[in-house]
């Protein structure tokens, strides 16, 4: 199988990392309805089994729950073996990450390692092992969900932002690498999305439903876009935020 | 965060509430919530008035507990999470040749809501109510999960129980095999009420529903369009994607002359000799769902729906009701007449053998008096109003309509002595007072 795999083709397999999140659930369902095979990876196996059943009934060729813990590399190997044994194009979408309140991290700086493992190094380590399989087959897409918080460090969540910034840079390099073999990588930077993480948070505006993010991801996959903001206008919001000179920015609390 | 302060409303947008909502995405989160904060669960808020509101209190929004867990094609049993919408079940499972036994008029309703209100559909005269086809459900109680089957006395208190026995997590539904993925619908004009009732009494169709022109008076009183449907094999384009009402309509949009004109045109839309058309399943079951947020057509002040069922022997009261409504000029184009069978799943279920009449009213100043008059007529005739829609019944009218209320309240109070599951509806009508 070396032919590039396009939307709707049979034989696409998707590994969804962090599949219990609402954005991941929305994407999994849409992939299921177009007949993809799915490996739903995360920690809450009971919940993943429920999502896997839901995806099978929505038309997934196969949907299985697999254990994945970004902080426990021992969970990576079985997933990689499972992927290697799957025929067709291999794809992955990364939704993992954690955003403890900055104040908690200030009180306990050892939390930084966990945030960086969840949002950057854990998934990066798995993707690093997955990349050769995509290269070998000459197809497939890796979707890395970052955050607009990674575009500039802010007082409110700069540890999370730093981890995401690292992940963005990693995704950029991965894209540079994969494109040589015909595979692809997409960096997704969501703005405010209506998830369990943002439910009830103050200061949310223009909140997008998870289904809109899933649609944007599938469109980016179809058009082989490189870096997307979702909803799209966040590109412009972040352009402005990035353009604020540091002497001014450092005094702001946005 | 767990709780979000939200202003929310029932489908009629007349009753509103401000309170804190939690929106769990996993069953384990629901378990934790019910342990820490017992409170009512609400679905997509398709009940019209205050049955889905808990002013100044907390409630659990089940919108994200919406997965389909299994389809047993041998037994015809579908297991779903309570927040799963009926329209999604039709869209996803319908093409596999299965449908829920009972479907209400909107596919946006959730399975949990359909159980809590024991909803009925266009086949009620054959199939009974929604709750009668629930094989089992799981209640998430502070002390843990509890599986409830029809043998359990909690079952009859939960079906039609308006959420007063605690949040439902999952349910197992008996499904029916369909003859095919489309609906064959015969539509015919009905000139007046007598003909209508006669056609209903003699119809052999699986699904029947009648639109009624509530503005008609005199010889045309009770005229409308009868729809009879059967599932069948065939090919139609899939149901069209909905359009959204972008703004609240101005008040004159549903003024008397406009509604009268609309209704007359709508009536003549069907050829005099009638016709048979083929429709996607969703278009037949959920005709209004194509227009997302159609409740905004009633403008900012919202609307009410009056729905009653009266015994077969009291059918003449329908004439009096339609006369009163027709003369008032208050009705909207949405009015429905249907024959009901005796099937009901719980102690507080609405359905009973008879005729059911539903009429929407824009929430004008004159509407409450009109609706109170209609409620009094229904009670007088030995009928009852549907609590999922009621806005103006009086507490003292309830026991005459729902004779099992006290027994039901006893079961609820036993399970939930502090009244943690009470909603605005329960408080307004003192439903759980002993």
TrEMBL record, chain A:
Keyword Oxidoreductase annotated: yes
Keywords: Oxidoreductase
Top-rank lineage group of the source organism: Bacteria
Molecular-function GO term, any one: oxidoreductase activity
Similarity remark: Belongs to the short-chain dehydrogenases/reductases (SDR) family.
Designated name of the protein: Short-chain dehydrogenase
Taxonomy of the source species: Bacteria, Pseudomonadati, Pseudomonadota, Alphaproteobacteria, Rhodobacterales
TrEMBL record, chain B:
One MF annotation (Gene Ontology) recorded for this entry: oxidoreductase activity, acting on the CH-OH group of donors, oxygen as acceptor
The entry's keywords: FAD, Flavoprotein
Entries under Pfam families matching the protein: FAD_binding_4
Residue ranges annotated for the FAD-binding PCMH-type domain, each copy included: 14-178
Keyword Cell membrane: no
Database matches in PANTHER family: D-ARABINONO-1,4-LACTONE OXIDASE, L-GULONOLACTONE OXIDASE
Protein name as it appears in the record: Decaprenylphospho-beta-D-ribofuranose 2-oxidase
Native species: Tropicimonas sediminicola
């Amino acid at each position: 199988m070396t032919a590039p795999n396009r939307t709707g083709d049979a034989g696409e397999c998707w590994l969804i990392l962090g599949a219990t999140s609402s954005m991941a659930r929305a994407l999994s369902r849409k992939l299921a309805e177009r007949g993809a095979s799915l490996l739903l990876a995360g920690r809450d196996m009971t919940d993943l089994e429920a999502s896997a059943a839901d995806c099978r009934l929505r038309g997934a060729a196969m949907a299985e729950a697999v254990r994945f813990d970004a902080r426990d590399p021992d969970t990576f190997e079985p997933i990689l073996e499972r992927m290697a044994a799957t025929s067709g194009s291999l794809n992955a979408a990364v939704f993992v990450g954690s955003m403890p309140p900055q104040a908690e991290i200030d009180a306990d700086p050892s939390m930084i390692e966990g945030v960086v493992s969840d949002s950057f190094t854990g998934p990066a380590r798995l993707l690093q092992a997955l990349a050769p399989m995509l290269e070998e087959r000459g197809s497939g897409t890796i979707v890395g969900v970052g955050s607009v918080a990674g575009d500039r460090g802010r007082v409110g969540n700069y540890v999370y932002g730093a981890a995401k910034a690292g992940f963005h840079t990693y995704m950029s390099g991965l894209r540079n690498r994969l494109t040589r073999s015909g595979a692809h990588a997409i960096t997704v930077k969501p703005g405010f999305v209506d998830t369990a993480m943002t439910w009830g948070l103050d200061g949310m505006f223009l909140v997008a439903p998870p289904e809109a993010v899933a649609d944007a991801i599938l469109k980016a996959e179809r058009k082989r876009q490189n870096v997307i903001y979702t909803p799209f206008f966040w590109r412009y919001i972040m352009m402005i935020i990035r353009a604020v000179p540091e002497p001014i920015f450092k005094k702001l609390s946005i | 965060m767990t709780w979000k302060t939200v202003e929310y409303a029932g489908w009629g947008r007349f009753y509103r509430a401000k309170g804190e909502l939690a929106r769990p995405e996993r069953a384990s989160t629901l378990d934790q919530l019910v342990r820490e904060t017992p409170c009512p669960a609400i679905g997509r808020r398709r009940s019209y008035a205050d049955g889905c509101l808990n002013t100044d209190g907390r409630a659990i929004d089940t919108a994200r507990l919406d997965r389909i867990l299994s389809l047993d094609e041998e037994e015809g049993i579908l297991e779903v999470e309570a927040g799963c919408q009926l329209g999604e079940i039709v869209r996803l499972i319908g093409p596999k040749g299965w449908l829920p036994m009972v479907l209400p008029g909107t596919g946006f309703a959730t399975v949990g809501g359909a159980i809590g209100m024991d909803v009925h559909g266009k086949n009620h005269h054959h199939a009974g109510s929604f709750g009668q086809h629930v094989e089992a459900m799981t209640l998430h109680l502070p002390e843990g999960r509890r599986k409830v089957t029809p043998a359990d006395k909690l079952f009859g208190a939960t079906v039609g129980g308006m959420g007063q026995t605690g949040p439902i997590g999952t349910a197992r539904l008996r499904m029916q095999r369909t003859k095919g993925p489309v609906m064959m619908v015969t539509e015919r004009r009905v000139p007046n009420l007598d003909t209508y009732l006669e056609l209903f009494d003699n119809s052999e169709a699986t699904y029947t529903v009648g639109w009624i022109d509530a503005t008609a008076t005199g010889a045309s009183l009770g005229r409308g369009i009868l729809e009879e449907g059967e599932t069948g094999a065939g090919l139609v384009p899939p149901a069209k994607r909905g359009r959204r009402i972008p703004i609240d309509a101005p008040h004159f949009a549903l003024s008397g002359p406009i509604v009268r004109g609309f209704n007359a045109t709508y009536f003549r839309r069907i050829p005099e000799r009638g016709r048979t058309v083929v429709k996607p399943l969703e278009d037949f079951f959920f005709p209004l769902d194509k227009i997302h947020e159609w409740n905004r057509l009633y403008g900012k002040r919202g609307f009410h729906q009056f729905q009653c069922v009266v015994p077969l022997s009291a059918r003449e009261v329908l004439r009096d009701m339609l006369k009163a409504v027709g003369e008032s000029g208050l009705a909207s184009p949405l009015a429905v007449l249907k024959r009901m069978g005796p099937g009901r799943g719980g102690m507080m279920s609405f359905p009973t053998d008879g005729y059911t009449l539903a009429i929407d009213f824009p929430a004008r100043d004159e509407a409450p008096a009109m609706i109170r008059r209609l409620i009094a007529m229904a009670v007088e005739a030995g009928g009852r109003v549907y609590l999922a829609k009621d806005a103006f019944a009086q507490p003292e009218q309830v026991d005459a309509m729902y004779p099992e209320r006290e027994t039901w309240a006893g079961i609820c109070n036993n399970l939930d002595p502090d009244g943690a599951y009470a909603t605005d509806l329960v408080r307004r009508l003192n439903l759980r007072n002993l």
